Write the structure tokens for this entry.
Amino acid sequence: MAGEEQDTEAKIKRAAEQVFLEYGYEGAKIRQIADAAGVNIALVNYYFRSKEQLFKSIYMENFRAFFGRIVMMLNEETPLEVKIWKIVDRYTDFILDNPLIPIFILAENRKGSDVFFKELHVREVIKSAYFTKQLQEEVSKGNIRPIKPLHLIMTIVGNIVFPILARPIVSYVGDFDSDGFRQFMEERKKIVPEMIMAYLRPV
Amino acid sequence: MAGEEQDTEAKIKRAAEQVFLEYGYEGAKIRQIADAAGVNIALVNYYFRSKEQLFKSIYMENFRAFFGRIVMMLNEETPLEVKIWKIVDRYTDFILDNPLIPIFILAENRKGSDVFFKELHVREVIKSAYFTKQLQEEVSKGNIRPIKPLHLIMTIVGNIVFPILARPIVSYVGDFDSDGFRQFMEERKKIVPEMIMAYLRPV
DNA sequence: TTATATTTTAAACACTTGTTTAACTTCACA
DNA sequence: TGTGAAGTTAAACAAGTGTTTAAAATATAA
């Protein structure tokens, strides 16, 4: 009876997000979404024209959350090493709070139409980024060894995200409960930046 | 007209693997599998009792290929550094030759029932592994710094597999064609082992 | 060849899917 | 208060789903 009431459109979207994230596009059924939202099936098509359009808006939001966030952090004007530590820390927390996003984004992206990336100006944002310039400067100062930005990004993101993608296997092998897995990820907050810096520092 | 004839059961399985890998369990349709195999729909259920059972057998095979392969390589009796270089090299090649396997395995594993792992003795294979002992020995000899086997495994696999999972994005951002992406992965064959060794070597 | 089992087929079945319809209710406002 | 718009509903629609059936074709063996 508290302020939990939302307008119908928002209720549907919230329910759809939950269902799509858990089951994917094909696995999610409109009736399931309607049930989760507690509304009539027809209302889903009344507010959003089709399943595909509803999915698309949710996909875009989560794509932006998943990749936009890392790009934003990369472009903060912070010294490189501090930045890497900070990104790993904050991105790990983000992924732990939203563990379904990575597999959702990547699985639905198998067919991979350019459209999404173009609409989000992904390439431009990275090419013209402060991060790219920062890396070049650190290299020419002799502070770090040369590395392509994309390799560094893949290393940061992959090291954080992959254990989440493989979480059932990781938890089974490591015999982790929910807290155990969280602690495993906390350990990586130290390992991953140290490893990256160990590589980057010139010999 | 050459020796391309197979028995029906094998034809169905081969077609099913291709379709399941590309579209996932929900996205794959029996009629599509039957068409790809060039057989009547009913034959799919004649040879395999149901869609689920057909899927299960294919999933198991690919799970074994995906994780079994890395476990096997980890347990070869080779000096640690040599081994890491070799694994990254060979596993990268394997993933490049079978790029659909990782997202297939991980996406279908969202719900993550223990059953598969138990049947494949995943935990035991890792716990009692030569690799685990080897790591401990290297640590006590002072050759490397302490690290949990699972962290090292996640780092190796994540660094190789993640770019494949994010391939559409990577290729778009890096403006790669098929060869360009392959070359990007070839570069990682050097970066990833060097980074891991830079971390492991004691200060 | 004949009889028996195996394989293959077209058709249908029962059910679920996303979507639409047309009637009904609620609301805003002149 | 009355009127049109917006919101909601149960029901139906057409297409697609995995699966089964019963008959036909083919292979196997006596």
Notes: The two ends of chain A are 65 Å apart (CA to CA). Chain A has a mean pLDDT of 93. Chain A touches chain B through 51 residues (CB under 8 Å).
